[in-house]
């Protein structure tokens, strides 16, 4: 059977100058995508007549054309300026709808937000989002919590799933090494908050979708950059881009060095990214990515309150101190991913991805020495079918995901930073997978209903080949397959306003590191977390598009909550403690005072985000102690971020940011708190085109301008009172970037 197609062609131009715009992404609601060439021309063949075409380009307002006519040349004008709320296209639920037509708590971090800061870390960009908290226990030691605490994450990222270009970046064992990636590798970030098991499998925390950097159609350029800053910060980048109508290719190298704001807190990281995309036909597109990372970072360790107040720059001391034991992480890895999008007919399309990963870790810790090798393969596929059920438009999506990881893990005595006698030798096979199905219905009166379901399964096989003073064994833990449903309903009240509500179920099995702790002990009693999330929200814009807002309220009841404590040897141990009640409100508001590219002051925008968290232990009994009703450890009741962005026609720009966090309980007993803090920063720069081929950016910035003393990445339930991980004091940075375009 021949594939019926609709062809849409035209040109994309700057609204203010009439000049062609290359590299504009053209997305059809039916799933197909194309890019405008160096003359601004685009040609997009679709399997069926789409309800809309979306034209998006960084730095320009997105344009949505409803019910476009095939065969008619389109003339699309894009205005400079940030995209407003109704124009952002959401890919997370695989329906390619504008944000105003998507039921769910979703936040977008685009490239402009990432570049508001120094790019040495993603922490400040991610923390502009309400309901999301990113921390650094040490430089390059990240953890993320979405609508919850970091109780399960004494180190690393857990209970939050990450994807890069739609390919799993979270490993089969439930952990994510985001520090293997550089901020320059990321084009945008889409965050889905709360349980999203209907599409992305097990998890109660949320899902983060990372989009890679791409070369625009018709672009051939070479860009180099350098930055230097306080505490010995040095950063270098080089990027080559080649883009055409049918393919694009990007090579990027980034190197970052940091002497550290504390003892034993240096970083040395190199990342190489190869990102490519090919469109051999109107029915097929293929993308391939490779990330090579060589990372070394030191671990200064937690301080007691007295040590923190006396000298926040010191590292953990004593016999097992961080300097004495050379506490640090050496990590080398390669991630390779391949994704194909294919249209079979006028109604059916498929997206399939495959990936492989190899990583080696050499990790002297305060109390032991660990050497681990990981190898992993996996894949994901989804089919989307568009149809009409009478006068109701429907999209049915179904698919699955599978991951298999193998780890050879050995622990040794740590003799002053060198490996001593072998303690344990383990082989761990982790398997995780799920199948999912989703139906989305466009109902009368501008209602959109979604019903989804996934079946999740996780299994660990642990073989102990050696243990001092004990025999060998083989242990298998197979978590029973669990169904996770999601139901959502959205009503678009006007072209400028929509409301939504949803109920979703979450299932989160323990990670391998929670079952097999770093001291070699098995945690056989640990059960999976389960919870139900209720949420409702309103989003829209007003005042002729100048004001945008997004407000969500939620209630999440989590059962079999997993918490961690440090034992006498600083090893994190985990257990289930009953249930938690988590109520919250997340708010984002932005107002554009000026948006006129012809004026000397071409853009002036203010924005803020605010998170209210009323999180409590509902039922928590530990021996004779009853912690029921206590505040959830690691959660600030109030958090807010505000900013101002200013741009001039000449190319000068200014970004101001302030971040506030309320006092935070650091132990389950609620007897120790981290102080509240307010931290402000600024970045000033200029971007200019120098002739026909060269572009230059020069910038400088300051973080923590008031030199506030605060702790970021606190150790929760720490043994010996070592709760505090001091953040840098006032620090400066400056740099430049030079781009040559053929």
Automatic annotation (TrEMBL):
It is found in: Cell outer membrane. Keywords: Cell outer membrane, Membrane, TonB box, Transmembrane, Transmembrane beta strand, Transport. Pfam families: CarbopepD_reg_2, Plug, TonB_dep_Rec_b-barrel. One of its GO terms (molecular function) is siderophore uptake transmembrane transporter activity. GO terms for biological process: siderophore transmembrane transport. Residues 100-207 form the TonB-dependent receptor plug domain. Residues 294-705 form the TonB-dependent receptor-like beta-barrel domain. One of its GO terms (cellular component) is cell outer membrane. The keyword Endoplasmic reticulum does not apply. Its main location: membrane. InterPro entries: Beta-barrel_TonB (IPR000531), Beta-barrel_TonB_sf (IPR036942), CarboxyPept-like_regulatory (IPR008969), Plug_dom (IPR012910), Plug_dom_sf (IPR037066), TonB-dep_rcpt-like (IPR039426). It is a multi-pass membrane protein. PROSITE patterns: TONB_DEPENDENT_REC_3 (PS52016). It comes from the Bacteria. Belongs to the TonB-dependent receptor family. This is Iron complex outermembrane recepter protein.
């Amino acid at each position: 059977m021949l594939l019926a197609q609709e062809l849409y062609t035209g040109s994309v131009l700057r609204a203010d100058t009439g000049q062609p715009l290359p590299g504009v992404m053209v997305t059809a609601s039916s799933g197909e995508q194309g890019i405008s060439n160096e003359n601004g021309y685009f040609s997009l063949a679709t399997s069926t007549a789409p309800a809309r075409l979306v034209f998006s380009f960084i730095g320009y307002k997105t344009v949505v054309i409803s019910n476009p006519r095939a065969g008619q040349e389109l003339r699309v004008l894009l205005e400079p300026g940030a995209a407003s709320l109704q124009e952002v296209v959401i890919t997370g639920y695989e329906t390619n709808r504008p944000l105003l037509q998507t039921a769910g708590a979703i936040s977008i971090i685009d490239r402009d937000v990432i570049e508001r800061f120094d790019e040495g870390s993603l922490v400040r960009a991610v923390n502009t989002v309400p309901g999301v908290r990113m921390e650094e226990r040490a430089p390059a030691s990240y953890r993320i919590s979405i609508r919850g605490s970091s109780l399960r994450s004494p180190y690393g990222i857990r209970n939050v799933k990450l994807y890069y270009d739609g390919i799993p970046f979270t490993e089969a064992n439930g952990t994510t090494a985001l520090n293997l990636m550089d901020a320059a590798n990321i084009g945008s970030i889409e965050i889905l908050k709360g349980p999203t098991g209907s599409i992305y499998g097990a998890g109660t925390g949320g899902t983060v979708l990372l989009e890679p950097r791409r070369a625009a159609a018709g672009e051939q350029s070479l860009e180099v950059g350098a930055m230097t800053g306080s505490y010995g910060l040095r950063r270098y980048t080089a990027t080559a881009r080649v883009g055409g109508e049918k393919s694009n290719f990007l090579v990027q190298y980034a190197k970052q060095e940091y002497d550290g704001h504390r003892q034993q807190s240096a970083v040395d990281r190199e990342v190489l990214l190869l990102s490519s995309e090919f469109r051999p036909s109107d029915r097929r597109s293929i993308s391939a990515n490779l990330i090579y990372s060589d990372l070394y970072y030191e671990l200064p360790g937690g301080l007691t309150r007295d040590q923190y107040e006396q000298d926040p720059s010191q590292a953990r001391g004593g016999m097992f101190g961080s300097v004495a034991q050379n506490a640090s992480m050496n990590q080398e890895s390669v991630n390779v991913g391949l994704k194909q999008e294919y249209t079979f007919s006028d109604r059916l399309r498929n997206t399939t991805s495959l990936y492989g990963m190899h990583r080696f870790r050499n990790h002297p810790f305060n109390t032991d020495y660990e050497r681990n090798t990981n190898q992993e393969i996996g894949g994901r596929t989804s089919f989307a079918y568009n149809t009409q059920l009478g006068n109701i438009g429907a999209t049915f999506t179904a698919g699955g995901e599978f991951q298999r990881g193998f780890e050879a893990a050995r622990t040794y005595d740590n003799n002053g930073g060198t490996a001593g006698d072998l303690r344990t030798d383990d082989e761990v096979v982790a398997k995780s997978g799920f199948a999912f199905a989703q139906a989305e219905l466009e109902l009368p009166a501008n209602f959109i209903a979604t019903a989804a379901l996934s079946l999740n399964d996780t299994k660990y096989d642990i073989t102990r080949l050696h243990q001092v003073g004990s025999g060998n064994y083989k242990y298998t833990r197979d978590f029973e397959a669990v169904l996770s449903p999601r139901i959502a309903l959205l009503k678009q009240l006007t072209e400028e306003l929509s409301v939504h509500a949803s109920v979703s179920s979450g299932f989160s099995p323990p990670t391998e590191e929670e079952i097999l702790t770093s001291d070699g002990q098995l945690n056989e009693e640990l059960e999976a977390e389960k919870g139900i999330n209720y949420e409702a929200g309103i989003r829209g814009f007003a005042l002729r598009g100048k004001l945008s807002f997004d407000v969500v309220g939620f209630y999440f009841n989590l059962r079999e909550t997993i918490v961690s404590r440090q034992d006498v040897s600083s090893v994190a141990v985990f257990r289930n403690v009953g249930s938690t009640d988590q109520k919250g409100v997340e708010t984002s508001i932005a107002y554009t005072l000026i948006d006129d590219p012809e004026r000397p002051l071409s853009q002036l925008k203010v924005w803020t985000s605010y998170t209210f968290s009323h999180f409590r232990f509902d039922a928590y009994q530990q021996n004779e102690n009853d912690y029921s009703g206590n505040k959830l450890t690691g959660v600030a009741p109030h958090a807010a971020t505000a900013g101002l962005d200013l741009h001039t026609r000449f190319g000068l720009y200014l970004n101001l940011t302030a971040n506030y966090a309320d006092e935070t309980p650091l132990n389950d007993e609620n007897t120790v708190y981290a102080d509240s803090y307010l931290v402000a920063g600024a970045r000033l720069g200029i971007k200019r085109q120098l002739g026909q081929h060269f572009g230059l950016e020069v910038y400088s910035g300051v973080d923590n301008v008031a030199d506030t003393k605060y702790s970021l990445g606190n150790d929760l339930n720490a043994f010996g009172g070592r709760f505090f991980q001091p953040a840098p004091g006032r620090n400066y940075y400056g740099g430049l970037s030079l781009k040559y375009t053929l």
